[in-house]
Specification:
Immunoglobulin-like; alpha/beta; single chain; TIM Barrel; about 375 residues; eight-stranded parallel beta sheet; globular
Length: about 375
Amino acid sequence: MFLSKPVMGWNSWNTFTKDINEQLIMDTADALVSTGLRDAGYVYLTIDDCWSEKKRDRKGMLVASKEKFPHGMKYVADYVHSKGLKFGMYSDSGFMTCAGYPGSFGHEFDDAEYFASVGADLLKYDNCYHPSMSGMQRYNRMAMALKSTGRDIVFSACSWGTNGVFEWCRSAGVDMYRSTGDITDTFESIKDLFLSQKEKIQHTGPGCYNDMDMLVTGLKGQGNIGFGKGCTDANYRYHFAAWCMCGCPLIIGADVRNITKENLELLTNKYLLAIDQDIECRPPIFIDDTTGHKDNVICFKHLHDGTYAVGFFNSYDSKLNMELQFYEIGIDPLMGYSFELTDVFTGKNVGKCKDAFTATVNAGDCKVFIAKLVK
């Protein structure tokens, strides 16, 4: 399957881990519709680890948990599809999943047939308990197994950025690949994952996307990866805008049945979604903050309509001025060009800037603009 844009959707792990069941999944499908998230583009609903029985059946096939999914997985998939959504499932490239359920190593073709038979549209494929054979071999084998079913199934390789995944993921039939370790609902985690992309982001592009892990936007310290009170709304703005600037898959991890108005508005921000889903899917240029704060990030991204996205990300715990000198992106002051800027959070035109632009950014927050080059 060729993905022309990064995947958008929801995954059960961050909030619910093992505490999943068919009613929860159906209620979540309803919530994706009623909140407007589906219509904003979040169409892939994925059940993560812990969905199966602890053992395969006598024929060696995977079996959905009879307690959690008494009607079977096709019943759930059919309901998800009836809501205009796509259905995602989970397995592992090793002998066991990360939570100790049956993995797909040695069963790739049988498992791929199972996923196709129940109506899966995406497979998240993890990296626990595997033999020493290379990641490329393990993931390439499942890619071939999925294609052999004749069903279009997005292949999401969750290899945590290990085994040189950047070098082989596209060649191995992968549609999206994890370039990082696991995220947590902390600002430190968000910053670390974002900053880790400076030397990696150039590998992303149409057909094979760099995945910095699922969104923690809206978790507020709840669920499996929450710590304390979680992040502030400012931190979530930084997080969501950074993932959009990097053109990452946008997979919500919060309980969408109870998400706050502020975080729902953030997740459906039309400007940020347009940046993430831009048809050219170009990675951003990372530029150092010339004010000397080394952990701050300025991103500059080409968009298909001739405009540009410019993001200022303040990683510190105090309000700071961040400056972009236009010569850093190739515009010399003698050329006579300016940038006309629109704030993506307010929708307001903030005027023209020549030579440089200084953004005042709150602690742990960001400012993002759509920039039009004008004479």
